[in-house]
Each structure stands twice: as C-alpha cells, then as structure tokens.
Design brief:
80% helix, single chain, mainly alpha
Length: 152
C-alpha cells in the first residue's frame, strides 16, 4: 500500500469517527480495535475500487459496483449472523461498520449532481435506479445465496 493510500484512508476514517460522534461506549477496547480494522478494510476497498475507471457506455459504474457489492455482503451476513447466533454488537460491526464504509451514498449523490449539471437526465435516472434497485436486489440475492449454502 502506498503512503498516499494510507493517508487517504486514515483521513476518511477520522472524518467517519467524527461524523458518528465516535459512539464507542458499547464496545470493549479489543472490540474498538476490531471495529476500526473492519472500517479500514471497507474504506480501503472502496477507495481502491473508486480509483479504477469503469464505464458502462457513458455511465461511470465504480459507485454502482461498491454499492452492490456492499449490499450483497450485507445480505449474506444477515443470514450468517442468524445461523451463527452472533451477538448483536458483532453483527453491527460487520453490517454497518464494514459494509457502511465500503458503500458510498455521498459518491452516488455527487455523481447524480454531476449528471444533472451536465443535463444528462437519462443517465442520471439510470444511475439512481440502478444504484438503489440493484443494491436492494443484492441484499435479497445475498440472503438467497447464503440460504442456499448455509440453510435458512
């Protein structure tokens, strides 16, 4: 990992902690380290995936990919957390810390704003529908996939 990448991930995480109010009272010190490591991994994956330019026609799909991937992981984890009878706080760590730091609503909003400013209304609509629709679909798909492999 390059130094620049480490600095960007660190700054994103500091901002994330501040925006959440760093509400870590429910977790032990070991949990906090684990929690931060999950966010770091999710943030790093998102950062790397967003720096690789991918297009479907004229529509940039980086944000779509991270949002659908995060939703798929969330769907899989929803089933696994029930099957493995995980403590709720650990379910929150994966579901909202890792998947929340992997996915990005702000990038979706920015891309949508950019398409609107450039009068690309059709692409803007496709971008919104694809991100929201495929992300919700990926949650259902992840749950179905986990259910096939781990039972439901």
């Amino acid at each position: 990992m390059r130094t620049k990448d480490i600095c960007v991930v660190f700054l994103i995480q500091v901002g994330y902690d501040i925006s959440l109010g760093a509400n870590l009272n429910r977790f032990t010190e070991a949990d906090n380290v684990y929690q931060k490591s999950k966010r770091m991994v999710g943030t790093f994956l998102r950062y790397k995936l967003l720096t690789i330019p991918t297009y479907l026609g004229a529509l940039q799909t980086n944000v779509l990919i991270v949002n659908v991937l995060g939703s798929l992981i969330l769907g899989i984890f929803a089933v696994l957390s029930q099957q493995w009878n995980l403590d709720g706080k650990y379910a929150l760590l994966i579901a909202f810390r890792f998947c929340g730091s992997l996915t990005t609503m702000s990038a979706l909003a920015y891309d949508t704003h950019d398409l609107l400013n450039n009068a690309k209304l059709g692409l803007m609509a496709i971008n919104i529908v694809a991100n929201v629709g495929l992300s919700v679909g990926a949650i259902f798909g992840g749950k179905a996939l986990a259910g096939m492999f781990f039972g439901n």
